[in-house]
Specification:
Elements lengths: L6 H20 L33 E4 L5 E6 L7 E5 L3 E5 L7 E2 L8 E7 L7 E6 L4 E4 L7 E2 L8 E6 L7 E5 L4 E4 L7 E2 L11 E6 L7 E5 L2 E5 L7 E2 L9 E6 L7 E5 L4 E4 L7 E2 L9 E6 L7 E5 L4 E4 L7 E2 L9 E6 L6 E6 L4 E5 L3
Antiparallel strand pairs: 1-28, 2-3, 3-4, 4-5, 6-7, 7-8, 8-9, 10-11, 11-12, 12-13, 14-15, 15-16, 16-17, 18-19, 19-20, 20-21, 22-23, 23-24, 24-25, 26-27, 27-28
């Protein structure tokens, strides 16, 4: 009997053994003996960090030390450039927003400078109103040198204003001489119209309607006056105001029929009809001698008042109410207020005996 296993049977046995080997390799494996990996740490949900409340705005002193500042103007194209009229010091200039000051007085000899005005189209051109009896001086090189510009106006100048649309037209408010006008950039001056007889001939401040520059307002020792023909004729426009001396004027740039007047003893008055009638706007004011006013150019419901003994006041409701803004202001006799034309949050104050201050006031 043939006991040999057929070839086919041998082949099948080989395949079967191979299959058993694969099955063992794929079966359950012993547990790993290496180090165990801890589960991922639980990450707590993010928590919001409380934002500290904004600190109240505070004034910062810029100098010049102990200076009395009569007037201040800002270059509208380069607001870091400032000019100030300083008692006993002529004109000073800063090119770093008040960080440093230097006198620019070449040609300003034997005069006191009371008022400054700048050509808005050519800021290198400025005018200076002087005392005693020397009229105006002019620079065309940013204060590098000054020359007398007083033909026809040998008188003390207390205030100046440049026509915003025709800068060659300049107005000067004088001491007991009324208003003078130049139409050739200060080359020649002539007395502007009638109607400003003493005490209205003492002109402390001038304001030009930005939309209609032939309309002007002037604050005088005898009250408020208005001209609608470029100074040809002046008429009283202070109905409803108390007190005679009008020391400050400000016009709402977006609604020029709305204007504000600061008086010596009567506080702030407001007109909404181009000066035809006025109402007191003094709630919250503790000092009624208002020497300076400034209206925010973009948000004219915000305005500021500088006073003789109360420092600076702020209104955010178009003069309906006021609150003091004096933190850091070490001199509370404020003679001039000017807002940065490009960044109106920056407000500059010229003071008596304390130089210039600035505040970055969040509206």
């Amino acid at each position: 009997m043939d006991t040999r296993i057929p070839l086919t049977a041998k082949f099948m046995a080989l395949v079967f053994s191979l299959l058993l080997g694969v099955s063992s390799a794929c079966g359950p494996q012993p547990a790993a003996t290496g180090p165990s990996i801890p589960p991922a740490a639980t990450i707590p949900p993010p928590t919001s960090t409380p934002v500290p409340a904004a600190e109240p705005a505070a004034w910062k002193s810029l100098g010049p030390e102990k200076a009395t500042v009569y007037d201040l103007v800002i270059d509208p194209q380069t607001p870091s450039t400032l000019y100030i009229a300083v008692e006993g010091g002529g004109v000073w200039k800063s090119t770093d927003a008040g960080g440093d000051w230097n006198p620019v007085v070449k040609g300003l000899t034997r005069v006191e400078v009371y008022a400054l005005a700048m050509d808005p189209a050519a800021p290198s051109t400025l005018y200076a109103g002087t005392w005693p009896g020397r009229g105006a001086f002019k620079t065309t090189d940013s204060g590098g040198s000054w020359s007398e510009s007083s033909v026809g106006m040998a008188i003390t100048v207390l205030s100046l204003a440049v026509d915003p649309k025709t800068p060659s037209t300049v107005y000067a408010g004088t001491e007991n001489g009324g208003v003078f006008k130049s139409t050739d950039g200060g080359g020649n001056w002539s007395k502007s119209g009638d109607g400003l007889r003493f005490p209205a001939s003492m002109v402390y401040v001038l304001a030009i309607d930005p939309a209609a520059p032939s309309t002007l307002y002037t604050g005088t020792m005898g009250g408020l006056f208005k001209s609608t023909d470029g100074g040809g004729k002046w008429e009283a426009a202070g109905a409803g105001m108390t007190g005679d001396r009008v020391l400050a004027l400000a016009i709402d740039p977006l609604t020029p029929a709305t204007l504000y007047a600061g008086t010596d003893g009567g506080g702030v008055f407001k007109s909404m009809d181009g000066g035809a009638s006025w109402e007191a706007a003094n709630t919250g004011l503790t000092d009624m001698a208002v020497y300076a006013l400034a209206v925010h150019p973009q948000t004219p419901s915000t305005l500021y008042a500088g006073t003789q003994n109360g420092g600076v006041f702020k209104s955010t409701d178009a003069g309906a109410s006021w609150s003091q803004l004096n933190d850091g202001l070490t001199t509370i006799y404020v003679k001039v207020l000017v807002l940065d034309p490009q960044v109106p949050r920056a407000l500059y104050a010229g003071t008596k005996g304390g130089g210039v201050f600035v505040i970055h006031d969040a509206r």
